[in-house]
User: Which sequence fits this backbone?
């Protein structure tokens, strides 16, 4: 019985490791400039965790095989051969060093996104997350976002941000859209706020995943390097429509982006 | 009895017979709703977050909060008798409200207190209809595709804004009224309130979100009285 358990444990350990080693399920190709460090961190973590996992499970299997006896013998291990203290200290040090190393290397990936300010000429785009859609705003030719008046939000009228163009001059040229378009290879400064509850902006290919916290004005910045259409999904449970909450991100050539923005402006 | 008496009697009888034969209520109030000023621009609706609905509108639909027509006509104005007519029991027909292409059809649904309201979902996506009642009970209800219509009713008169919790652009109104004398202005701004017995009536015209105009009209027989309303609209 014990030997069967040992073999089962080792088979399950190796079988679960195989899809990871073979890269059966790959994340979408990285289209960002900062994603390389994140992918490297992910890779390092998987390798370290994977090696530790396999070593632990195989060792466990070996010990179970070794010390499983026929029912006639007691087969109980009363003391750990050689004493446990040395091994326990070694385990704490090794695992501790591994975790600290991952944290130290990972901090570079974190800092590249969060402790680096956006470039001064990054294009600002505002995103508002509300139950259950994302809406975006571009500042228009004046480069300024008009003030938001939440009490004036009227979805039936498509006044999604609560703008008051009658009284606020900067709001008059603002462009509000239901999909987000950005030019390729240009840094974008995404200004984020939540209209109601917590949401999250997640574009896997962009390696950007940032929560919206009600009451906080948050931002991330990134540069997309590949033209295409990507899905922005809400990844923070926000209510009964959370499953349906998404928008599309279009990464376009500069020319196509300018045309897109003109078309959106005409529809305001 | 002289010939004069006979003639007078005959005339009187004929008059009474004519008046009663014309029916208990056969007066009509009709007219046209127009506006002055600049109406708010109706903006196209981007349904890209719901591809199955976006596919139903190759040319995006526009918002319907102010729908105007040539000659400055105004659609979706509910015109009804607010005074002078007794409250009526609800009819047995249902008031039908449809969710189609992620749009409420009709945009303005007028029906009576106690009348059965039937809400259908013709789309391939779930909706969560949320009538924002303030006088009646407020509720919202999820309706996956292919499920039976929601049946409900309201027992107090109210103008209720309707939204969908899942699709923010969906917008409509329930006009819950006390009697059967109501109409919603069509694309030419026209409305008609038939079958009115003689009496003094107050006609109210209501346009979302909260604009109301009234006029008093006297019906004395089977005539058609024309009444018009001119709403003042602003761009913002």
Assistant:
């Amino acid at each position: 019985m014990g030997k069967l358990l040992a073999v089962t444990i080792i088979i399950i350990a190796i079988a679960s490791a195989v899809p990871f080693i073979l890269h059966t399920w790959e994340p979408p190709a990285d289209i960002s400039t900062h994603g390389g460090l994140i992918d490297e961190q992910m890779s390092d973590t998987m390798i370290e965790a994977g090696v530790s996992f396999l070593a632990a499970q195989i060792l466990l299997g070996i010990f179970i095989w070794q010390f499983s006896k026929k029912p006639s013998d007691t087969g109980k291990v009363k003391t750990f051969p050689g004493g446990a203290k040395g091994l326990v200290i070694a385990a704490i040090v090794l695992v501790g060093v591994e975790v600290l190393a991952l944290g130290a290397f990972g901090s570079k990936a974190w800092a590249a996104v969060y402790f680096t300010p956006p470039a001064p000429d990054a294009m600002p785009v505002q995103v508002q997350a509300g139950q259950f859609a994302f809406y975006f705003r571009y500042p228009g030719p004046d480069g300024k976002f008009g003030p938001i008046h939440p009490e004036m939000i009227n979805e039936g009228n498509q006044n999604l941000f609560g703008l008051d163009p009658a009284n606020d001059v900067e709001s008059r040229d603002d462009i509000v859209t239901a999909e987000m378009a950005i030019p390729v290879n240009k840094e974008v400064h995404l200004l984020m706020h939540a209209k109601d509850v917590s949401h999250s902006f997640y574009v896997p290919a962009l390696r950007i995943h940032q929560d919206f916290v009600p009451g906080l004005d948050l931002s991330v910045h990134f540069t997309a390097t590949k033209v295409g259409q990507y899905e922005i999904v809400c990844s923070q449970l926000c209510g009964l429509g959370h499953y349906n909450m998404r928008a599309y991100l279009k990464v376009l050539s500069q020319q196509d982006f300018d045309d897109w923005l003109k078309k959106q402006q005409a529809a305001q | 009895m002289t010939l004069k008496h006979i003639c007078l009697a005959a005339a009187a009888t004929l008059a009474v017979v004519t008046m009663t034969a014309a029916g208990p209520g056969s007066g009509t109030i009709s007219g046209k709703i127009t506006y002055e000023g600049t109406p708010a621009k109706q903006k196209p609706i981007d349904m890209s977050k719901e591809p199955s609905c976006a596919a139903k509108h190759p040319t995006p639909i526009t918002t319907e909060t102010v729908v105007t027509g040539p000659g400055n006509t105004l659609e979706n104005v509910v015109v009804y008798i607010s005074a002078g007519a007794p409250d009526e029991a609800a009819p047995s027909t249902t008031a039908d409200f449809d969710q189609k292409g992620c749009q409420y059809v009709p945009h303005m649904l007028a029906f009576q207190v106690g009348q059965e309201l039937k809400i259908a979902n013709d789309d391939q996506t779930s909706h969560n209809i949320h009538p924002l009642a303030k006088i009646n009970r407020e509720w919202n209800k999820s309706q996956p595709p292919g499920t039976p219509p929601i049946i409900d009713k309201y027992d107090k008169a109210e103008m209720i804004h309707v939204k969908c919790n899942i699709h923010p652009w969906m917008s409509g109104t329930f006009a819950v009224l006390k009697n059967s004398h109501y109409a919603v202005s069509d694309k030419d701004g026209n409305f008609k309130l038939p079958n009115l017995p003689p009496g003094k009536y107050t006609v109210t015209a209501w346009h979302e979100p909260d604009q109301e105009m009234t006029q008093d009209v006297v019906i004395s027989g089977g005539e058609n009285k024309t009444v018009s309303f001119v709403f003042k609209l602003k761009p913002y």
Residues 25-233 of chain B form a domain with the Immunoglobulin-like fold (CATH 2.60.40.420). The CA atoms of residues 63 and 234 of chain B lie 16 Å apart. The mean pLDDT of chain B is 92.
